[in-house]
Each structure stands twice: as structure tokens, then as C-alpha cells.
């Protein structure tokens, strides 16, 4: 089966001599990218940047957010057919629900637990999104465009993005986020299940931040809410307030790795998890990136990554590919041998190719692998070991954005959207 490191339609860089071995899941924990990609891979302190800033938002699929990119002028991007649909089995008689422009910025949450996502995937037919969200399951077929998400559309068109980036498994938030920190979820398939903390493999193995510590590399978690996600690993991962990020950028004191967590709950929620207002999440992402771009000295040595932990139950038309099983820990049903549903992914940095769309298959552990490649860290499992770390998206010889681009649209939420969310229950069905 194809691993998360296998190429899409683009040619692998000349230094990538191990693509076929990654595709066959040859590599495992302890491997560095000089082994899993090639001896001549750009890596470590030879890379021209010092800082990596990662913002992981919540629960939106690629088609849900970015299916109108082709109409926005982004070429060579895989978007669904205009009449793409899913059957509503509860209708009498059952009938197809076509994709539609969603006018509501706050919609009822959509199903995204382990079994439900496997039903949505349905052996590659991608036809279970309405059924698993009934009653009102039509909301899973809604999409937004550049009028709703102007900053995100500008970001995707300006910098480098991927239309073959998937979450790490066909399941919910916690397991997918665990893959970022550990290259596995230690058997976990459920949000809010802390049972993995007692797993022997979890307790005995290094996680990403452990490997950063051992390599003498600095890291910091900045949070906009009352907690970080990583606090489930221990209170030392609680993080600091996002205001400190602004201070650290101003003082040119960013750590090697910055993990940015939005506000996950309450009136300030801006993680984009339904029913939160999508534009508040866009505003938060813009706040982080605009801060970086406002300080040329910092911008010129920083890579910013925007991704989503999972699709949240919203429709996407691309069947997730097979993937390397991370370790010997099996879930109670199915396996960890397939990626999750496709999600939005953008990298902004001085060295990313302008307006580039990557077709290399990647998942959340590819971000982990990108960090490992920069700081010469070992892989933690077979999943991150065989992951492709987005290097096709960069042109280190001719960086197009040493001067930050201008002309970004405002990311301020529309008052009409705020008012609608305030005065109406979250949308369900179709508008």
C-alpha cells in the first residue's frame, strides 16, 4: 500500500532516492531523513530557517473550505464536480443532496467519530456524509468560498498549499492530534479517552517534544484559550498566553518550534470546530501570520504551517489512501493502515514556491517529519518515518517571499455573520 511518503503526480526531488522504500513502509522508529529520503536531503542547520510555527485548527475538510479555489484562479487543484452529491437515505424516497454554498457561518457539529468516519469513507465511495449526520445531514455537503474565507483563499493562492494532505486516520480530533506529537495514537480512537496514557509503549517512548529536549532544541506552546491540547500529556505542556507570542516575535526570541493552539471553547472560541464561527478562526490565523510578516527580521527565518486536525464530518470527494501502520498497537476495530479525510493545508514562508499546489500525499505526521528534518530528530514510529516532509513546496535557491507579500484581504469577521450566529441556533440541514 502507498505510504504517507509516496509522491502524488509531481516528480520527487533528485535527492529523494528512497521514495519506493517509503511507499513500502520500510523505515521505522529511529530513522532520520538522511536515511528515509536520501543522504543529500536538505536538513538540519543547513536549512535557511530557524523557526517553525505550527497552527493546527479544527474539523474542516478540504472540499468544505477550498473547493472553489479553481474559480478563484488556483490552477491544478483537485476539486469536486459541481454536481457532487451524497444520498439522503432518510428522504422518502431517498434522494441525492448536492453540494451547496453554505451561507451560515455557524452550523451544528457533524459526525466524526471512528465508526462514523469509516462509514463516510465507505471503502472509497465517500458517500456516507449525509447519512451519518441525519437528521439534517445535508449540512455536511455545504461549502464556503472566497467571499466567506477571503484571507484563507488569498493565503492558498499566494503561498504553497497541498491538495493531497490528509489527516492521519479515519477518526476524531484526539487521535489525529496524538499523531502529531507521537507519530501514533497508541491505539486511541476516541476524543477525551486518556487510556493511552497508561499504555506501556506511550510511557516508554519519546514523543516529539521529548526528542526536541534531548536534541537541545527549544519549543513553546502558545494558547489563545485557557488550555492547550498537549496539557493531556501533563501540566508542563499547558503553554503560555498568545500575547507572549507577540512579545517573542517583537523581541526576536521565538523558540525553534512554536505550537499555536486556538481557543477551544467559550465565547472566545476560534478553533473553527462547529458550531464556532469560521471567520473567527480565520481571523486568529491571520493574526499569527500577519504578526510574523510584520517583523522582516523574524519572517526571514521562519516557516508558518496552517493545518487542520481532521475533517470534522464534512464532505470531501477524494478517497484517503493507504498508509503505514505506525506500530504494533491495533485499534479495537479496523486498522491504522489508511489516512483520514483530506483537509486544508498551507505553508507560508520566504522560501515556499509561489502559488504552488503540491500533489504529494502527506498527513499530520508529515508536519512532524518536517520538524524532525529541520532539527535532525529521529522518527518515533513507522508512520512519521515514512512520511514526506513537504520539501517539494520549497525553493531554497530562489526564495520568492524574502519580502512578505502585500495585498492580503481583511480577516475581520463580518458583522452579518456574527449577528446571524448570535441570533440563530447553529444551522442544520440546508439553509
Output the number of helix runs: 14
Radius of gyration: 20 Å
Could you give the order of strands across the largest sheet? 8-7-9-1-10-11-6-12
Structural class of the helix and strand makeup? alpha/beta
- Secondary structure: number of strands: 12
Shape descriptor reads globular
Enumerate the spans where pLDDT stays under 50 for 5 or more consecutive residues. Answer: 1-9
- SSE order, one letter for each helix or strand: HHEHEEEHEHEHHHEEHEHHEEEHHH
End-to-end distance: 41 Å
Mean residue pLDDT: 95
Multimeric status of the protein: single chain
As a percent range, the share of strand residues is: 5-15%
Query: Major β-sheet, in short?
Result: 8 strands, mixed
Helix amount, in percent? 10-25%
Looking at this protein, list some descriptive labels:
431 residues; eight-stranded mixed sheet; two-stranded antiparallel sheet; 14 helices; 12 strands; disordered N terminus
Describe this structure in a few short sentences.
By secondary structure, this protein is α/β, with parallel strands linked by helices. It is built from 14 helices and twelve strands. The strands form three sheets. An eight-stranded mixed sheet has the order 8-7-9-1-10-11-6-12, sandwiched between helices.
Amino acid at each position: 500500500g502507498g505510504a504517507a511518503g509516496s509522491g502524488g503526480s509531481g516528480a520527487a526531488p533528485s535527492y529523494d532516492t528512497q521514495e519506493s522504500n517509503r511507499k513500502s513502509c520500510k523505515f521505522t522508529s529511529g530513522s532520520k531523513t538522511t536515511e528515509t529520503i536520501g543522504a543529500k536531503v536538505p536538513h538540519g542547520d543547513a536549512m535557511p530557517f530557524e523557526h517553525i510555527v505550527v497552527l493546527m485548527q479544527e474539523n474542516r475538510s478540504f472540499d468544505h473550505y477550498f473547493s472553489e479555489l479553481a474559480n478563484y484562479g488556483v490552477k491544478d487543484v483537485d476539486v469536486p464536480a459541481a454536481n457532487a452529491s451524497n444520498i439522503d437515505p432518510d428522504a422518502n424516497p431517498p434522494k441525492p443532496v448536492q453540494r451547496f454554498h453554505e451561507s451560515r457561518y455557524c452550523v451544528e457539529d457533524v459526525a466524526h467519530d471512528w465508526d462514523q468516519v469509516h462509514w463516510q469513507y465507505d471503502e472509497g465511495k465517500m458517500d456516507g456524509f449525509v447519512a451519518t449526520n441525519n437528521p439534517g445531514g445535508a449540512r455536511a455537503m455545504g461549502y464556503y468560498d472566497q467571499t466567506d474565507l477571503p484571507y484563507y483563499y488569498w493565503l492558498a493562492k499566494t503561498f504553497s498549499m497541498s491538495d493531497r494532505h490528509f489527516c492521519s486516520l479515519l477518526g476524531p480530533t484526539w487521535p489525529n492530534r496524538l499523531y502529531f506529537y507521537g507519530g501514533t495514537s497508541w491505539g486511541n480512537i476516541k476524543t477525551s479517552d486518556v487510556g493511552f496514557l497508561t499504555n506501556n509503549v506511550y510511557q516508554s517512548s519519546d514523543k516529539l517534544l521529548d526528542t526536541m529536549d534531548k536534541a537541545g532544541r527549544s519549543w513553546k506552546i502558545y494558547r489563545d484559550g485557557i488550555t492547550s491540547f498537549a496539557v493531556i500529556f501533563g501540566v508542563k505542556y499547558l503553554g503560555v498566553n498568545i500575547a507572549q507570542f507577540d512579545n517573542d516575535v517583537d523581541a526576536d526570541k521565538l523558540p525553534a518550534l512554536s505550537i499555536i493552539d486556538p481557543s477551544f471553547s467559550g465565547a472566545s472560541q476560534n478553533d473553527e470546530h462547529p458550531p464556532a464561527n469560521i471567520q473567527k478562526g480565520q481571523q486568529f490565523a491571520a493574526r499569527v501570520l500577519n504578526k510574523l510578516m510584520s517583523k522582516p527580521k523574524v519572517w526571514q527565518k521562519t516557516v508558518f504551517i496552517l493545518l487542520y486536525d481532521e475533517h470534522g464530518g464534512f464532505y470531501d470527494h477524494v478517497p484517503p489512501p493507504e498508509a503505514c501502520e505506525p506500530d504494533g498497537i491495533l485499534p479495537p476495530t479496523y486498522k491504522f493502515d489508511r489516512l483520514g479525510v483530506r483537509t486544508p493545508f498551507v505553508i507560508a514562508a520566504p522560501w515556499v514556491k509561489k502559488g504552488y499546489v503540491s500533489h504529494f500525499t502527506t498527513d499530520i505526521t508529515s508536519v512532524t517529519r518536517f520538524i524532525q528534518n529541520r532539527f535532525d530528530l529521529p522518527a518515533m514510529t513507522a508512520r512519521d518515518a515514512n512520511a514526506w516532509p513537504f520539501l517539494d513546496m520549497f525553493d531554497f535557491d530562489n526564495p520568492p517571499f524574502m519580502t512578505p507579500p502585500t495585498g492580503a484581504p481583511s480577516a475581520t469577521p463580518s458583522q452579518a455573520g456574527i449577528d446571524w450566529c448570535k441570533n440563530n441556533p447553529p444551522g442544520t440541514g440546508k439553509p
